[in-house]
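Components:
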Amino acid sequence: MKILEINNLSKQFGALHVLRDISIRVDKGEVVALIGPSGSGKSTLLRCATMLETADSGEIVYLDEKAMETGPDGRAVYASSARLRRIRNYFGLVFQDFNLFPHYSVLKNVTDAPLSVQKRDKREVQEHAGVLLEKMGLADKAGAYPYQLSGGQQQRVSIVRALAMNPQILFFDEPTSALDPELTGEVLKVIRGLAEERMTMVIVTHEMQFARDVADRVYFMDNGVIVESGSPREVLEHPAEERTRQFLMRYSQG
Amino acid sequence: MDNLLFIQYFTDLGSLMGQLLGGMLKTLEIFVLTLLFSLPLGLVVAFGRMSKNPVVQWITKIYISIMRGTPLMLQLLVVYFGPYFIFGITISASYRNLAVIIGFVINYAAYFAEIYRSGIESMPVGQYEAARVLGYNRTQTFLKIILPQVLKRILPPVTNEVITLVKDTSLAYAIAVTEMFTLAKQIAAAQTSMMPFVAAGIFYYIFNFIVAAGMEKIEQKLRYYR
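Structure:
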Protein backbone atom coordinates (compact mmCIF):
# COMPACT_ATOMS: atom_id res chain seq x y z
CA MET A 1 0.00 0.00 0.00
CA LYS A 2 1.31 3.37 -1.05
CA ILE A 3 1.70 5.98 1.68
CA LEU A 4 3.60 8.69 -0.15
CA GLU A 5 4.16 9.31 -3.78
CA ILE A 6 6.18 12.20 -5.16
CA ASN A 7 6.25 12.68 -8.90
CA ASN A 8 8.50 14.93 -10.96
CA LEU A 9 9.05 17.36 -8.13
CA SER A 10 11.13 20.42 -8.98
CA LYS A 11 12.22 23.41 -7.00
CA GLN A 12 14.47 26.36 -7.70
CA PHE A 13 16.00 28.90 -5.37
CA GLY A 14 16.64 31.72 -7.81
CA ALA A 15 18.83 30.27 -10.51
CA LEU A 16 19.77 27.25 -8.45
CA HIS A 17 17.91 24.03 -9.20
CA VAL A 18 17.69 22.39 -5.78
CA LEU A 19 15.36 19.64 -6.93
CA ARG A 20 15.00 18.42 -10.50
CA ASP A 21 12.28 16.06 -11.49
CA ILE A 22 12.37 14.00 -8.32
CA SER A 23 10.11 10.93 -8.04
CA ILE A 24 9.86 8.79 -4.96
CA ARG A 25 7.36 6.27 -3.72
CA VAL A 26 7.12 5.00 -0.16
CA ASP A 27 4.97 2.00 0.72
CA LYS A 28 3.52 1.10 4.07
CA GLY A 29 6.10 -0.36 6.42
CA GLU A 30 9.00 0.67 4.25
CA VAL A 31 12.11 2.42 5.51
CA VAL A 32 13.71 4.71 2.98
CA ALA A 33 17.09 6.35 3.46
CA LEU A 34 18.09 9.49 1.58
CA ILE A 35 21.81 9.95 1.32
CA GLY A 36 24.06 12.34 -0.54
CA PRO A 37 26.52 15.18 -0.05
CA SER A 38 25.46 18.40 1.68
CA GLY A 39 23.64 20.68 -0.69
CA SER A 40 22.42 17.75 -2.76
CA GLY A 41 18.77 18.58 -2.03
CA LYS A 42 17.89 15.81 0.45
CA SER A 43 16.69 18.15 3.16
CA THR A 44 14.84 20.35 0.68
CA LEU A 45 13.07 17.26 -0.61
CA LEU A 46 12.01 16.41 2.94
CA ARG A 47 10.89 19.98 3.54
CA CYS A 48 8.84 19.95 0.36
CA ALA A 49 7.29 16.62 1.30
CA THR A 50 6.31 17.99 4.71
CA MET A 51 5.14 21.23 3.13
CA LEU A 52 7.52 23.47 5.03
CA GLU A 53 8.77 24.51 1.63
CA THR A 54 6.66 24.98 -1.48
CA ALA A 55 7.76 23.18 -4.60
CA ASP A 56 7.61 24.78 -8.04
CA SER A 57 6.08 21.88 -9.93
CA GLY A 58 5.36 18.18 -9.64
CA GLU A 59 2.98 16.16 -7.55
CA ILE A 60 2.80 15.10 -3.90
CA VAL A 61 0.24 12.48 -2.90
CA TYR A 62 -0.35 11.07 0.59
CA LEU A 63 -2.46 7.92 0.61
CA ASP A 64 -5.08 8.93 -1.93
CA GLU A 65 -5.02 12.62 -1.28
CA LYS A 66 -3.23 15.04 -3.51
CA ALA A 67 -1.35 17.66 -1.50
CA MET A 68 -0.08 19.40 -4.61
CA GLU A 69 -0.04 19.03 -8.33
CA THR A 70 1.10 21.00 -11.34
CA GLY A 71 -1.59 23.25 -12.74
CA PRO A 72 -2.26 23.84 -16.42
CA ASP A 73 0.11 26.81 -16.36
CA GLY A 74 2.94 24.55 -15.23
CA ARG A 75 3.04 25.89 -11.69
CA ALA A 76 2.36 24.20 -8.39
CA VAL A 77 -1.21 24.13 -7.12
CA TYR A 78 -1.65 23.17 -3.48
CA ALA A 79 -4.77 21.60 -2.03
CA SER A 80 -7.24 23.61 0.04
CA SER A 81 -6.07 24.46 3.54
CA ALA A 82 -8.69 22.11 5.01
CA ARG A 83 -7.29 19.23 3.00
CA LEU A 84 -3.70 20.20 3.79
CA ARG A 85 -4.61 20.21 7.46
CA ARG A 86 -5.91 16.67 7.10
CA ILE A 87 -2.84 15.62 5.14
CA ARG A 88 -0.53 17.07 7.81
CA ASN A 89 -2.06 14.49 10.12
CA TYR A 90 -0.63 11.72 7.98
CA PHE A 91 3.00 12.55 8.62
CA GLY A 92 5.37 13.50 11.39
CA LEU A 93 8.76 15.16 11.14
CA VAL A 94 11.76 14.85 13.43
CA PHE A 95 14.06 17.84 13.02
CA GLN A 96 17.82 17.90 13.11
CA ASP A 97 17.80 20.32 16.04
CA PHE A 98 14.75 18.84 17.81
CA ASN A 99 12.70 22.05 17.98
CA LEU A 100 11.04 21.03 21.21
CA PHE A 101 8.93 23.70 22.89
CA PRO A 102 11.21 24.91 25.71
CA HIS A 103 8.38 26.28 27.85
CA TYR A 104 6.52 22.97 27.89
CA SER A 105 7.43 19.96 30.00
CA VAL A 106 8.28 16.74 28.20
CA LEU A 107 4.76 15.43 28.77
CA LYS A 108 3.15 18.63 27.51
CA ASN A 109 5.42 18.69 24.46
CA VAL A 110 4.12 15.23 23.64
CA THR A 111 0.44 15.63 24.54
CA ASP A 112 -0.40 19.19 23.57
CA ALA A 113 -0.83 18.73 19.83
CA PRO A 114 -2.90 15.50 20.13
CA LEU A 115 -5.14 17.37 22.57
CA SER A 116 -5.43 20.81 21.03
CA VAL A 117 -4.99 19.92 17.36
CA GLN A 118 -6.46 16.45 17.06
CA LYS A 119 -8.89 17.07 19.93
CA ARG A 120 -8.44 13.55 21.22
CA ASP A 121 -9.58 12.30 24.58
CA LYS A 122 -7.32 13.50 27.39
CA ARG A 123 -7.01 10.15 29.15
CA GLU A 124 -6.29 8.27 25.97
CA VAL A 125 -3.64 10.81 24.91
CA GLN A 126 -1.91 10.72 28.29
CA GLU A 127 -1.89 6.95 28.39
CA HIS A 128 -0.52 6.82 24.87
CA ALA A 129 2.18 9.36 25.77
CA GLY A 130 3.07 7.34 28.86
CA VAL A 131 3.50 4.18 26.81
CA LEU A 132 5.65 5.93 24.21
CA LEU A 133 7.86 7.67 26.79
CA GLU A 134 8.31 4.38 28.60
CA LYS A 135 9.28 2.68 25.37
CA MET A 136 11.87 5.35 24.63
CA GLY A 137 13.35 5.11 28.12
CA LEU A 138 12.00 8.52 29.10
CA ALA A 139 9.38 7.53 31.65
CA ASP A 140 11.17 9.41 34.43
CA LYS A 141 11.52 12.56 32.32
CA ALA A 142 7.83 13.35 31.81
CA GLY A 143 7.98 16.32 34.17
CA ALA A 144 11.36 17.61 33.01
CA TYR A 145 11.87 20.60 30.74
CA PRO A 146 13.85 20.29 27.50
CA TYR A 147 16.84 22.29 28.80
CA GLN A 148 17.29 19.70 31.55
CA LEU A 149 17.79 16.89 29.02
CA SER A 150 20.78 15.78 26.98
CA GLY A 151 20.66 16.15 23.22
CA GLY A 152 19.94 12.47 22.79
CA GLN A 153 17.09 12.62 25.26
CA GLN A 154 15.69 15.72 23.59
CA GLN A 155 15.75 14.03 20.22
CA ARG A 156 13.99 10.97 21.65
CA VAL A 157 11.31 13.26 23.10
CA SER A 158 10.85 14.85 19.70
CA ILE A 159 10.43 11.36 18.20
CA VAL A 160 7.80 10.61 20.84
CA ARG A 161 6.13 13.96 20.10
CA ALA A 162 5.86 12.98 16.43
CA LEU A 163 4.67 9.44 17.21
CA ALA A 164 2.00 10.69 19.62
CA MET A 165 0.14 12.10 16.60
CA ASN A 166 -0.23 8.56 15.19
CA PRO A 167 1.35 9.42 11.84
CA GLN A 168 1.21 7.09 8.85
CA ILE A 169 4.73 8.05 7.93
CA LEU A 170 7.58 9.61 9.84
CA PHE A 171 10.30 11.81 8.33
CA PHE A 172 13.70 12.30 9.91
CA ASP A 173 15.90 15.20 8.83
CA GLU A 174 19.43 14.21 9.83
CA PRO A 175 18.23 13.19 13.30
CA THR A 176 21.71 12.71 14.75
CA SER A 177 23.65 15.51 13.07
CA ALA A 178 23.26 17.91 16.01
CA LEU A 179 24.35 15.31 18.54
CA ASP A 180 27.68 14.52 20.10
CA PRO A 181 29.02 11.23 18.72
CA GLU A 182 28.45 9.41 22.00
CA LEU A 183 24.77 10.36 21.92
CA THR A 184 23.95 9.33 18.35
CA GLY A 185 23.78 5.67 19.32
CA GLU A 186 20.79 6.00 21.62
CA VAL A 187 18.80 7.86 18.96
CA LEU A 188 19.72 5.43 16.19
CA LYS A 189 18.70 2.56 18.45
CA VAL A 190 15.25 4.06 18.88
CA ILE A 191 14.82 4.52 15.13
CA ARG A 192 16.01 0.96 14.60
CA GLY A 193 13.33 -0.19 17.02
CA LEU A 194 10.70 1.65 15.00
CA ALA A 195 12.00 0.04 11.81
CA GLU A 196 11.58 -3.37 13.40
CA GLU A 197 7.97 -2.47 14.17
CA ARG A 198 7.55 -1.65 10.48
CA MET A 199 6.95 2.05 11.01
CA THR A 200 6.99 3.75 7.60
CA MET A 201 9.93 6.13 7.60
CA VAL A 202 11.98 8.38 5.36
CA ILE A 203 15.34 9.20 6.86
CA VAL A 204 17.84 11.76 5.63
CA THR A 205 21.11 10.64 7.11
CA HIS A 206 24.87 10.73 6.93
CA GLU A 207 25.19 7.53 8.92
CA MET A 208 25.98 5.04 6.17
CA GLN A 209 26.24 2.01 8.42
CA PHE A 210 22.86 2.88 9.88
CA ALA A 211 21.30 3.31 6.44
CA ARG A 212 22.68 -0.08 5.44
CA ASP A 213 21.18 -1.69 8.54
CA VAL A 214 17.69 -0.25 8.63
CA ALA A 215 16.75 0.88 5.13
CA ASP A 216 14.74 -1.20 2.71
CA ARG A 217 15.60 1.24 -0.03
CA VAL A 218 18.30 3.86 -0.40
CA TYR A 219 18.17 6.92 -2.64
CA PHE A 220 21.42 8.64 -3.47
CA MET A 221 20.97 12.31 -4.36
CA ASP A 222 23.44 14.74 -5.87
CA ASN A 223 22.91 18.21 -7.34
CA GLY A 224 19.15 18.01 -6.97
CA VAL A 225 18.66 14.73 -8.80
CA ILE A 226 18.27 11.15 -7.67
CA VAL A 227 21.39 9.55 -9.07
CA GLU A 228 20.43 6.03 -8.16
CA SER A 229 18.22 4.02 -5.88
CA GLY A 230 17.80 0.46 -4.80
CA SER A 231 18.42 -1.87 -1.92
CA PRO A 232 21.21 -0.86 0.50
CA ARG A 233 23.30 -3.68 -0.99
CA GLU A 234 22.91 -2.33 -4.49
CA VAL A 235 23.45 1.35 -3.73
CA LEU A 236 25.95 1.19 -0.89
CA GLU A 237 27.97 -1.87 -1.78
CA HIS A 238 27.69 -2.14 -5.53
CA PRO A 239 26.88 1.34 -6.77
CA ALA A 240 26.26 1.54 -10.50
CA GLU A 241 27.02 5.22 -10.81
CA GLU A 242 30.42 6.85 -10.64
CA ARG A 243 29.07 9.75 -8.55
CA THR A 244 27.75 7.36 -5.93
CA ARG A 245 31.08 5.55 -5.80
CA GLN A 246 32.96 8.79 -5.33
CA PHE A 247 30.61 9.93 -2.58
CA LEU A 248 30.87 6.62 -0.72
CA MET A 249 34.61 6.61 -1.07
CA ARG A 250 34.93 10.13 0.29
CA TYR A 251 32.64 9.09 3.07
CA SER A 252 34.54 6.00 4.08
CA GLN A 253 37.71 8.06 4.12
CA GLY A 254 35.94 10.31 6.66
CA MET B 1 18.04 71.32 69.78
CA ASP B 2 19.53 69.47 66.89
CA ASN B 3 17.36 66.55 67.75
CA LEU B 4 14.24 68.66 67.74
CA LEU B 5 15.08 70.09 64.35
CA PHE B 6 15.51 66.59 63.09
CA ILE B 7 12.09 65.57 64.36
CA GLN B 8 10.60 68.79 63.00
CA TYR B 9 12.12 67.92 59.67
CA PHE B 10 10.45 64.56 59.52
CA THR B 11 7.05 65.68 60.76
CA ASP B 12 7.19 68.24 57.97
CA LEU B 13 8.04 65.51 55.54
CA GLY B 14 5.18 63.44 56.89
CA SER B 15 2.62 66.20 56.47
CA LEU B 16 4.03 66.94 53.04
CA MET B 17 3.49 63.33 52.01
CA GLY B 18 -0.10 63.76 53.22
CA GLN B 19 -0.52 66.87 51.07
CA LEU B 20 0.97 65.04 48.12
CA LEU B 21 -1.27 62.04 48.54
CA GLY B 22 -3.92 63.22 46.09
CA GLY B 23 -1.22 63.74 43.48
CA MET B 24 0.19 60.31 44.15
CA LEU B 25 -3.15 58.74 43.37
CA LYS B 26 -3.28 60.65 40.10
CA THR B 27 0.24 59.48 39.27
CA LEU B 28 -0.78 55.92 40.04
CA GLU B 29 -3.86 56.30 37.87
CA ILE B 30 -1.83 57.54 34.88
CA PHE B 31 0.61 54.70 35.39
CA VAL B 32 -1.99 51.93 35.59
CA LEU B 33 -4.20 53.18 32.77
CA THR B 34 -1.23 53.74 30.47
CA LEU B 35 -0.01 50.18 30.96
CA LEU B 36 -3.51 48.76 30.71
CA PHE B 37 -4.01 50.21 27.23
CA SER B 38 -0.52 50.56 25.81
CA LEU B 39 0.60 46.97 26.43
CA PRO B 40 -2.13 45.42 24.25
CA LEU B 41 -2.11 48.33 21.77
CA GLY B 42 1.64 47.85 21.37
CA LEU B 43 1.03 44.27 20.26
CA VAL B 44 -1.44 45.46 17.63
CA VAL B 45 1.08 48.06 16.42
CA ALA B 46 3.81 45.40 16.34
CA PHE B 47 1.61 43.26 14.09
CA GLY B 48 1.06 46.26 11.85
CA ARG B 49 4.80 46.86 11.72
CA MET B 50 5.39 43.23 10.71
CA SER B 51 2.42 43.14 8.34
CA LYS B 52 2.89 41.92 4.79
CA ASN B 53 0.69 44.78 3.65
CA PRO B 54 3.12 47.57 2.70
CA VAL B 55 0.61 50.35 3.46
CA VAL B 56 -0.04 49.08 6.99
CA GLN B 57 3.67 48.54 7.49
CA TRP B 58 4.47 52.03 6.27
CA ILE B 59 1.83 53.73 8.42
CA THR B 60 2.93 51.96 11.61
CA LYS B 61 6.55 52.67 10.80
CA ILE B 62 5.88 56.42 10.53
CA TYR B 63 3.74 56.34 13.66
CA ILE B 64 6.48 54.64 15.68
CA SER B 65 9.09 56.97 14.25
CA ILE B 66 7.14 60.09 15.28
CA MET B 67 6.31 58.74 18.75
CA ARG B 68 9.93 57.89 19.41
CA GLY B 69 11.39 60.88 17.63
CA THR B 70 9.53 63.72 19.36
CA PRO B 71 9.33 64.63 23.06
CA LEU B 72 6.52 63.08 25.06
CA MET B 73 5.78 66.51 26.52
CA LEU B 74 5.18 67.88 23.03
CA GLN B 75 2.91 64.93 22.24
CA LEU B 76 0.86 65.63 25.37
CA LEU B 77 0.46 69.25 24.33
CA VAL B 78 -0.62 68.24 20.83
CA VAL B 79 -3.14 65.72 22.13
CA TYR B 80 -4.55 68.26 24.57
CA PHE B 81 -4.57 71.42 22.48
CA GLY B 82 -4.76 69.78 19.06
CA PRO B 83 -8.56 69.46 18.94
CA TYR B 84 -8.89 73.21 19.54
CA PHE B 85 -6.14 74.48 17.27
CA ILE B 86 -6.72 72.03 14.46
CA PHE B 87 -10.46 71.46 14.53
CA GLY B 88 -11.68 74.44 16.55
CA ILE B 89 -13.30 72.20 19.14
CA THR B 90 -13.65 73.81 22.55
CA ILE B 91 -11.71 71.80 25.08
CA SER B 92 -13.49 71.02 28.32
CA ALA B 93 -11.53 70.86 31.54
CA SER B 94 -12.32 67.18 31.95
CA TYR B 95 -10.66 66.43 28.59
CA ARG B 96 -7.37 67.16 30.32
CA ASN B 97 -7.46 63.83 32.18
CA LEU B 98 -8.38 61.95 29.06
CA ALA B 99 -5.73 63.72 26.99
CA VAL B 100 -2.98 62.75 29.38
CA ILE B 101 -3.93 59.07 29.13
CA ILE B 102 -4.24 59.20 25.33
CA GLY B 103 -0.87 60.92 25.08
CA PHE B 104 0.89 58.40 27.29
CA VAL B 105 -0.82 55.38 25.71
CA ILE B 106 0.04 56.25 22.11
CA ASN B 107 3.61 57.06 23.09
CA TYR B 108 4.23 53.95 25.13
CA ALA B 109 2.43 51.69 22.65
CA ALA B 110 5.07 52.69 20.08
CA TYR B 111 7.91 51.69 22.38
CA PHE B 112 6.21 48.46 23.43
CA ALA B 113 5.52 47.65 19.76
CA GLU B 114 9.22 47.74 18.97
CA ILE B 115 10.00 45.59 22.00
CA TYR B 116 7.36 43.03 20.97
CA ARG B 117 8.63 43.06 17.42
CA SER B 118 12.22 42.43 18.44
CA GLY B 119 11.05 39.60 20.70
CA ILE B 120 8.87 37.99 18.05
CA GLU B 121 11.57 38.29 15.40
CA SER B 122 14.15 36.75 17.71
CA MET B 123 12.16 33.52 17.90
CA PRO B 124 13.86 30.68 16.03
CA VAL B 125 12.10 29.61 12.85
CA GLY B 126 12.20 26.01 14.08
CA GLN B 127 9.53 26.76 16.67
CA TYR B 128 7.12 27.86 13.93
CA GLU B 129 8.03 24.87 11.78
CA ALA B 130 7.57 22.36 14.59
CA ALA B 131 4.17 23.88 15.35
CA ARG B 132 3.20 23.81 11.70
CA VAL B 133 4.13 20.17 11.22
CA LEU B 134 2.15 19.28 14.34
CA GLY B 135 -0.89 20.97 12.80
CA TYR B 136 -1.28 23.98 15.08
CA ASN B 137 -3.11 26.78 13.29
CA ARG B 138 -1.70 30.30 13.22
CA THR B 139 -3.58 31.54 16.27
CA GLN B 140 -2.65 28.48 18.32
CA THR B 141 0.96 28.76 17.23
CA PHE B 142 1.14 32.37 18.30
CA LEU B 143 -0.75 32.09 21.57
CA LYS B 144 0.58 28.72 22.77
CA ILE B 145 4.07 28.49 21.35
CA ILE B 146 5.40 31.92 20.39
CA LEU B 147 3.88 34.50 22.76
CA PRO B 148 4.80 32.81 26.06
CA GLN B 149 8.42 32.57 24.97
CA VAL B 150 8.41 36.12 23.63
CA LEU B 151 7.11 37.44 26.96
CA LYS B 152 10.00 35.87 28.78
CA ARG B 153 12.50 37.31 26.31
CA ILE B 154 11.13 40.86 26.42
CA LEU B 155 10.68 41.15 30.15
CA PRO B 156 13.95 43.06 30.79
CA PRO B 157 13.31 45.80 28.18
CA VAL B 158 9.66 46.02 29.28
CA THR B 159 10.82 46.54 32.88
CA ASN B 160 12.97 49.42 31.65
CA GLU B 161 10.02 51.05 29.94
CA VAL B 162 7.73 50.60 32.94
CA ILE B 163 10.27 52.23 35.22
CA THR B 164 10.66 55.10 32.77
CA LEU B 165 6.89 55.44 32.72
CA VAL B 166 6.77 55.96 36.49
CA LYS B 167 9.09 58.92 36.11
CA ASP B 168 7.47 60.15 32.90
CA THR B 169 4.12 60.57 34.65
CA SER B 170 5.56 63.81 35.98
CA LEU B 171 5.33 65.21 32.45
CA ALA B 172 1.57 65.41 32.90
CA TYR B 173 2.17 68.79 34.55
CA ALA B 174 2.72 70.12 31.00
CA ILE B 175 -1.05 70.15 30.53
CA ALA B 176 -1.70 70.99 34.16
CA VAL B 177 -2.88 67.61 35.31
CA THR B 178 -2.30 67.69 39.05
CA GLU B 179 -0.33 64.53 39.47
CA MET B 180 2.13 64.39 42.29
CA PHE B 181 4.99 66.30 40.75
CA THR B 182 2.69 69.22 39.85
CA LEU B 183 1.60 69.40 43.48
CA ALA B 184 5.17 69.16 44.70
CA LYS B 185 6.13 72.13 42.54
CA GLN B 186 3.19 74.20 43.77
CA ILE B 187 3.94 73.49 47.43
CA ALA B 188 7.64 74.13 46.90
CA ALA B 189 6.87 77.52 45.36
CA ALA B 190 4.45 78.44 48.15
CA GLN B 191 6.74 77.39 50.97
CA THR B 192 10.00 78.32 49.21
CA SER B 193 11.35 74.97 50.30
CA MET B 194 13.16 72.05 48.70
CA MET B 195 11.34 69.58 50.90
CA PRO B 196 8.43 68.88 48.54
CA PHE B 197 10.92 67.79 45.92
CA VAL B 198 12.66 65.53 48.40
CA ALA B 199 9.29 64.00 49.22
CA ALA B 200 8.49 63.60 45.54
CA GLY B 201 11.86 61.97 44.92
CA ILE B 202 11.28 59.51 47.76
CA PHE B 203 7.86 58.71 46.35
CA TYR B 204 9.15 58.02 42.83
CA TYR B 205 11.98 55.96 44.21
CA ILE B 206 9.72 53.78 46.36
CA PHE B 207 7.24 53.41 43.49
CA ASN B 208 9.98 52.21 41.17
CA PHE B 209 11.48 50.01 43.82
CA ILE B 210 8.15 48.19 44.06
CA VAL B 211 7.83 48.05 40.25
CA ALA B 212 11.33 46.58 39.88
CA ALA B 213 10.68 44.04 42.65
CA GLY B 214 7.41 43.04 41.00
CA MET B 215 9.03 42.59 37.61
CA GLU B 216 11.81 40.56 39.15
CA LYS B 217 9.21 38.29 40.72
CA ILE B 218 7.69 37.70 37.29
CA GLU B 219 11.12 37.03 35.81
CA GLN B 220 11.79 34.49 38.53
CA LYS B 221 8.46 32.82 37.84
CA LEU B 222 9.44 32.41 34.20
CA ARG B 223 12.81 30.96 35.07
CA TYR B 224 11.41 27.42 35.16
CA TYR B 225 12.58 26.95 31.58
CA ARG B 226 15.37 28.20 29.36
